[in-house]
Amino acid sequence: MNTDRSTFGRRISGWWHRTFVDLIAQLQWSYLPPLMVYFAAGVSGLTSVVGAFFLKDYLNLSAAFVAGLAFWAGLPWILKMPLGHLVDLFWRWKSLLIVVGASFITASLLIMYRLVAAPDQMAGIMPLEDWYVVALMLAPSGYAIQDVVADAMTVEAVPQSDRDGRAFIQDEVRARHTTMQTLGRIAIISGFAGVAAVNIWIFSGAENLEKADRLVLYGRVYLIALAIPLLSVSGVVLHALIQRRLVRRGHLLHRPDQTTEVRWPILLGGLAFVVLSIVLGTANFAFAQETVFAVSLTVILYLMSRLLRELESKQAKVLIGTATIIFVFRAVPLPGPGLTWFEIDELGFDEQFLAILALLTSLLALLGLIILRPFMASRSIAQVVVLLTIAAGVLSLPNLALYYGVHEWTAARTGGVVDARFIAILDTAVESPLGQIAMVPMLAWIARNAPTHLKATFFAVMASFTNMALSASSLGTKYLNQIFTVTRAVTDPRTGTVASVADYSHLGNLLITVGLISVIIPLAVVFLVQNSPYQTRD
């Protein structure tokens, strides 16, 4: 009996060490600058609740149109291709791009502030909906630029040897890159958690405010959010100070081991993509999004084929299989904004409760990332995606149950304890740790295996490919919202007239369709890839 207890104790001790102690032991001061940039991206969630309510209550945009906007908002992330190559070409000056990104974010926040603080003045220049679209495009452009630099900084931050100059073995390098990428996700989620807590405080009692007072509160949130670009720029300043300190101590800084040659197809392809997107986005062309998606995917696949020549044949096949699995997993459609509108209108979820859900999601995602880090370091990406896919299917059921009124039945039999909010919190508690880990293994693989002089380019191209999946998801979401139409009540903030009424009768069929697609397609693709020459065990 004592032997069994001793064995159990050693297992618990070993798990604790692998999960928590080893993570802390691997921390480096050099990790902090990119983590600050990632943290700033997480803090962007400060305006998510405000944006959702402002869009729902004051802008007359359909669910299908909003889903289509998500497609255009995702395009700047595809531009990580030429941006990543620019980082490789101008490695010493890459931090300047952080300032450019911060300028875009600042402009977006100021536009949104003026929309809620002075809608009449903004409408006198151009319609509020058009201003909203401009702000929606500026923000992801800024964050995408900063993310490219942060990715490159993570490679620079991971040491290749210990303090005695002993080079780390391959398994140690793999563990450290996995840790660095995990910490990057943790920094983003920590930002979400922090601002969710702030939102809970800000929106305390907001349900009792008049609409005019709510707009004043929304404007205050956007002014507070101006701290976001300041935070990312501070990370760049700290990075420069740390690099100078290392030089004074005689350390060799990370530099590409050979000169990076200009890849004109990447730069010219990126420029052509920008021109095409602007022309089609401003033209009255019915299939503009589909055309941009098809052309963009073709260009990215071409660039990937060129980059894969830099890898060994076996590595190239593994990367193709890995990217395919991640792409399909991220490409499944979502319910769209109609689900949030239903929760606000029919279930009575207010700003403060949505902030509570965001905080719970972030905190549990942090814990999940830390606990699952050893799993990600020792399991293949295919196994990780299978786990996430099955979990996503199971966790789509509570939202469906809420739509069909299960909370009314449970509340009646539990004295009101298991109501809609209880079910929403329980679903969030189980779901949140799983949605944040899909990209970590692939990012760590690139950090370990991509050629040193093309690290940022590999990060950018592969990220562009997987971000194309989000564009595909947005298109799928738009199509489903056109089939299953969901509308909500909208009031013009200037005239007070009702522009549309709520209709959630088709939301149930939408949720069922999304749940089935989200499970069947990813599992089928994992099966096909793992039974082909492109299978991945890394």
How would you characterize this protein structure?
With 538 residues, the protein is an all-alpha fold. The protein has a single domain, classed as Up-down Bundle (Growth Hormone, Chain: A). Helix content is 75%, strand content 1%. The chain contains 23 helices and two strands. Strands 1-2 form a two-stranded antiparallel sheet. Strand 1 and strand 2 (498-500) form a beta hairpin. Helix 2 (32-43) runs parallel beside helix 9, helix 8 (128-157) runs antiparallel to helix 22 and helix 18 runs antiparallel to helix 23 (507-530).
Helices, by number, come to 23
Low-confidence stretches: 429-433
Largest sheet: 2 strands, antiparallel
Q: What structural category characterises the helix and strand content?
A: mainly alpha
Helix content: over 70%
Sequence of strands across the biggest β-sheet: 1-2
Subcellular location: Membrane
Pfam family, one: BT1
Transmembrane segments: 35-54, 61-79, 91-116, 183-202, 222-242, 262-280, 286-304, 316-333, 353-372, 384-402, 510-529
Membrane topology: Multi-pass membrane protein
